[in-house]
Write a structure and sequence with these properties.
Largest sheet: 5 strands, mixed
Structural class: alpha+beta
Order of helices and strands: HHEHEEHEHHHEHHEHEEEEHHHHH
Shape: globular
Strand content: 15-25%
Radius of gyration: 21 Å
Helix content: 40-55%
Distance between the termini: 35 Å
Bound molecules: 2-oxoadipic acid, nickel (II) ion
Strand order of the largest sheet: 2-3-4-1-6
C-alpha cells in the first residue's frame, strides 16, 4: 500500500482526541460542564489554536505497558518529551508528556498525554510483590489492537478503515471499568501504602485520570466553575496572572467519589474510590533555559516581581522563545511542581501520605519506554528558526 492511502498520524490523533473526549464526557458528566464553560470563554478570545485542544493524564503500572503505549502513541504522531521526576514530591511515579513535535502537527491536533509510570522500586517488598503479581495478570491490550499496531509498524501506516478501528481500540484502553482487578483486601493494602498505587494497580486497565481543555482565560473559567457549583480547587497552579502569560497555569475540580465493585469470597462488594477529576489549563509563552531558571527561582521565592512582563523585555533578555516572525512560541509541556500539586490535590483525605524519598531514574524510565525522551528546549530552539 502506498503512503498516500494511509490516514495521516496527525489525523488519527485528531480522531483519537475527539473520541477520548466523547468517552470521558459520558463517563464524567462534570467534564462536559467544563467543556461548555471553556467553549464560552474561548469564543470571546482570539488566539486559541483549536476548540478541541486538550491534554489527558494516564498512569501505567509496568515497563511493558509503557513500552506498548509508547508504540500506540507513535502511530498517532505522539512523541515522548521530557522526564518528570515526581519522587521529589514523595510520589511513587515518574512521567513524560507524549505530544506532537512539529508546528504542522500541533495545527492539526494539539493533543498531549501526560503519562506516568509507577515506581515499583519505591514500594516496600511485600506490597511490591502484590502489586507486581496483580499487574502481571492484567492485559491492557486487545488482540485486535495488537495486530493493528503491528500492521501499522510493518506497513508504515494504517488506511482509513484500519485507522478508525485502531482509534476505537486505543480509546478503549483508557475506559473506566467498574469492576476492580484485585480483591478488596488487596485494594485496601495498596491504598494504605499510597492512594496513587491503589489507583494504578487495582483496575483492569489504565483509565483516564483527567482530560483538560485549554482555555484562553483561566481566571474567568475558575470563577465560572465556582458559580456553577463545581467543587473547585482554591488555587491556580503555576505562575500568577500576568500581562504576558508564560508557561502553564492549571486548576481543577476535585476528584469524584465513584463506586467500584471488588471481588470477595462471597461475591461482588461495592466500595469507593476517588481519583478521576476535571482540569483546565491556560498556556503561555515557552521560556528559554535562562527564562526557566528565573521562573524556578521566582516560584521558590513566591515572588514574580523580578520577572519581566513585556514581550520586548522577555525578548531582549533572552527569557522566552520567539519564531522567525517574532511571535512568541507557546509552551507545549508541563511543570513538575504543578503536576505534583495536581496529583496531590486529588488524593483527598490521604494527601499527606508520602512514600520514602527517592531520586529520579530517567535511565530506567527510558529503558522501559524503549527510547530516550526528547529535550523540550531543543524542540523550542528548532521551532524558533
Ligand atoms: C498527572 C498529573 C499531572 C498536569 O496537568 O500537570 C498533570 C496525574 O494526575 O496523573 O496532568
Ligand atoms: Ni493534567
Amino acid at each position: 500500500m502506498s503512503a498516500s492511502s494511509f490516514r495521516h498520524p496527525d489525523q488519527l490523533r485528531a480522531d483519537f482526541s475527539q473520541a477520548l473526549s466523547d468517552m470521558y464526557r459520558e463517563e464524567v458528566p462534570a467534564y462536559g460542564q467544563l467543556i461548555d464553560i471553556v467553549a464560552d470563554i474561548n469564543a470571546e478570545h482570539e488566539g486559541i489554536r483549536s476548540d478541541g485542544e486538550r491534554h489527558g493524564a494516564i498512569r501505567l503500572g509496568t515497563a511493558d505497558e509503557l513500552n506498548l503505549i509508547g508504540r500506540v502513541f507513535a502511530v498517532l504522531g505522539l512523541h515522548p518529551v521530557g522526564y518528570y521526576d515526581l519522587s521529589v514530591a514523595g510520589l511513587p511515579v515518574h512521567s513524560t508528556a507524549f505530544r506532537p513535535i512539529t508546528e504542522a502537527g500541533f495545527n492539526v491536533s494539539p493533543f498531549r498525554m501526560f503519562t506516568s509510570l509507577l515506581r515499583l522500586d519505591m514500594l516496600p517488598d511485600a506490597l511490591r510483590k502484590k502489586a507486581e503479581s496483580a499487574l502481571a495478570a492484567r492485559c491492557i491490550f486487545s488482540a485486535k489492537c495488537h495486530s493493528l499496531l503491528e500492521k501499522a509498524e510493518t506497513e508504515g501506516g494504517l488506511n482509513a478503515i484500519d485507522g478508525a478501528e485502531f482509534v476505537r481500540e486505543a480509546v478503549s484502553i483508557f475506559a473506566w471499568r467498574k469492576r476492580a482487578h484485585v480483591d478488596l483486601e488487596t485494594y485496601q493494602a495498596l491504598l494504605s501504602e499510597h492512594p496513587l498505587i491503589a489507583d494504578i494497580v487495582s483496575f483492569q486497565g489504565p483509565h483516564m485520570n483527567h482530560l483538560t481543555p485549554r482555555v484562553a482565560d483561566i481566571d474567568a473559567a475558575h470563577q465560572r466553575m465556582r458559580e456553577m457549583g463545581l467543587e473547585v480547587k482554591e488555587t491556580i497552579e503555576g505562575p500568577p496572572r500576568r500581562n504576558c502569560p508564560i508557561l502553564l497555569r492549571q486548576t481543577a475540580f476535585k476528584a469524584l467519589t465513584e463506586s467500584v465493585e471488588f471481588k470477595t469470597k462471597y461475591g461482588w462488594e461495592t466500595a469507593h474510590h476517588t481519583a478521576r477529576f476535571g482540569e483546565i489549563e491556560q498556556r503561555g509563552m515557552a521560556l528559554t533555559r535562562k527564562g526557566r531558571d528565573l521562573y524556578d527561582r521566582c516560584l521558590a521565592a513566591k515572588d514574580f516581581s523580578d520577572f519581566p512582563d513585556t514581550e520586548a523585555e522577555l525578548k531582549a533578555q533572552g527569557l522566552a522563545f520567539f519564531d522567525k516572525n517574532g511571535s512568541p512560541l507557546t509552551y507545549e509541556d508541563f511543570l513538575p511542581v504543578s503536576a505534583a500539586g495536581i496529583f496531590k490535590s486529588n488524593l483527598r483525605d490521604t494527601a499527606e501520605t508520602e512514600t520514602v524519598a527517592a531520586s529520579g531514574n530517567q535511565a530506567v524510565f527510558e529503558a522501559a519506554l524503549g527510547r530516550p525522551v526528547l529535550d523540550m528546549f531543543e524542540l523550542y530552539e528548532t521551532a524558533s528558526h
